[in-house]
Every structure is written in structure tokens, then in C-alpha cells.
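Table 4 source record.
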Amino acid sequence: MNARPLILLLAAGVTGLVVALTGAPWWLAATAFGCLALGLGVVALQSVFPQESAHRLAWWRDRRRHR
């Protein structure tokens, strides 16, 4: 799976988030940006780890072999 659509979705979300949180309480802005950071972390993990099931199985088998 290509992570590009997720990145574009997050970029649109950042723009909407900044507009929506203008003048909001600090705790609401911190919570929203925390969720955004979590979303970016998911995108990063998906781009690093294989997403096809055959590749994923091979990755786990290789990892177990090296432990």
C-alpha cells in the first residue's frame, strides 16, 4: 500500500485543525496535535514495515530467525 493518500489526508487535516483551533483553549489544541502526531506515527510505521501479507510473513520469520 502506498502511504501517499494517508499523507495527503493528514496534510488536509493539519490545515483544518489549525483553522479550527485558532483561539481554542491550550488543552484542546494539545490533545488535537497529540492525535495528529499519533496519525503521523501510524503513517511512518506503514511506510517502514511491509504491508503485503507474504512480505509481512517473511519479515516475521526472518526476525524470529535472528533472535
